[in-house]
Structure formats: structure tokens, C-alpha cells
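Propose amino acids for all 150 sites.
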């Protein structure tokens, strides 16, 4: 019994280290949807420390407030108030874990990766990630602070 508990507690501590942690985000006018969870793995605390040459998994759970045939994602780095586009592997939201067409009042998991290139400068910035519907409204738009490092 006693041993069982110890093993259970040990396993839970391990599980907590492995499980994706929701990050605190700022919403930037997500009018066509409601963000439920933003998971970035690994990012145990903010600012997310992003190492050059690595890729970070992004899992955004959101509820749509609209229907849409297609969805387009865009990612920007906000540096001194200027939006600089980031390359992401696939800008097509319908190929990023979402089954299109998007229906109203349904929950979706948007899955993608943020590759951090070697040539990025080592700076602190804000990452803004958007997913637009057919009418260019945001199904989601969120911002988080990150620190790019070697
Ligand atoms: C994405 O996040 C949701 C909510 O936390 C979770 O249920 C789902 O399993 C995650 N998907 C992946 C591929 O990690």
C-alpha cells in the first residue's frame, strides 16, 4: 500500500514533466472563435525559451463561432512594434489537425510546429499567431513573449 503510493506519486511527478503545459496568452481580437488552450511544448514558463535549431510543438484548442471553408495561418514576431513574418511549415489550417470545412460551435485542435532557425537573432520578442477564416476574421489570434537563444 505504502509502496504503491510512493510509486504513484513518483509517476505523477514524472508525468507532470512530460505533459504539455498551457501557456498564458494575450488574445488579439479573436472575433470568429474563442481560444480555450494554447499549448507550446516545451515551454514550462514564460517567456518561452526558444533554442535555435529546435522546433516547438503548438497545439491550440479553440471553439469556432463561425463556419468557414478554409483557414489560413500566419505567424509574426513583434519587434519594436513592427510585425515580422515567421515561416511556418504549413500555412493551411485545414492541413494542421483541423478537419475542414470549419463548423460553427465546434471545438478544434490546431497542430503545428514553430521551427527556430539558426540565423534568428538572440532577442526577446512577442510571437503572434493567427488563424483566419474565409472572411479574414480571426478564428484565433494570440500573443506570447519568447526569448530566442542559442
Ligand atoms: C491538443 O490539446 C488538447 C487539449 O489539451 C488535447 O486533448 C490533445 O490531445 C492535444 N493534441 C495533441 C496532438 O497533442
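Proposal:
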Amino acid at each position: 500500500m505504502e509502496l504503491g503510493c510512493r510509486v504513484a506519486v513518483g509517476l505523477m511527478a514524472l508525468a507532470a514533466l512530460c505533459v504539455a503545459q498551457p501557456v498564458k496568452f494575450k488574445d488579439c481580437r479573436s472575433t470568429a472563435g474563442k481560444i480555450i488552450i494554447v499549448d507550446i511544448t516545451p515551454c514550462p514558463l514564460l517567456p518561452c525559451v526558444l533554442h535555435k535549431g529546435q522546433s516547438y510543438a503548438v497545439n491550440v484548442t479553440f471553439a469556432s463561432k463561425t463556419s468557414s471553408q478554409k483557414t489560413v495561418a500566419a505567424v509574426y514576431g513583434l519587434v519594436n512594434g513592427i510585425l515580422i513574418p515567421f515561416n511556418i511549415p504549413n500555412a493551411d489550417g485545414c492541413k494542421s489537425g483541423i478537419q475542414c470545412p470549419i463548423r460553427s460551435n465546434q471545438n478544434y485542435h490546431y497542430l503545428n510546429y514553430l521551427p527556430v532557425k539558426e540565423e534568428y537573432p538572440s532577442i526577446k520578442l512577442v510571437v503572434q499567431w493567427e488563424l483566419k477564416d474565409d472572411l479574414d476574421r480571426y478564428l484565433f489570434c494570440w500573443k506570447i513573449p519568447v526569448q530566442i537563444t542559442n
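The first strand starts at residue 26 and ends at 27. The pocket of 2-acetamido-2-deoxy-beta-D-glucopyranose is lined by residues 37, 39, 59, 61, 109, 111 (CB under 6 Å).
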